[in-house]
Amino acid sequence: MLFKNRKRTFVSILLVLLVVSALVLPMTASAGRFTREQGFMRVPRGATEAYTLTVGEVSVTIPPGALPKGGPVILIVTTGPRGQFLANFGPSYRFQAPVMMEFGDAEVVYYHYGNAQIPLYTGDLDGDGDSGEIESEHFSRYSGWF
Length: 146
What we know:
single chain, 1 helix, 6-stranded antiparallel beta sheet, elongated
């Protein structure tokens, strides 16, 4: 009889531990993951208004005349568990007018050129009181921290 009670107690404790670990483990597994989001828009030929694509805390605004022939705009943002990010803008364009890129509240972003990372200090370009903005005449890869 004593053996059956110990066995029953052991099985009960084991089941409770399994249930608790099933609830806790998914949270610990996702705590250190990178997330990847992407967005797409098409700027029409001869656009007369600005077009903005936003993915998470990163966005790009294409002003009128910057892309006279129109075309697709793709933004892929990978964000890490500590707020670090990598933003890929594409396809490769040379714009007729500067486009504005926003990187959340990042004070500096790094332009990836070959094997180098060139720091670019952001500012408040649109007058909304938030920094994290740069202007560029081409698409590339940028990284930083939110």
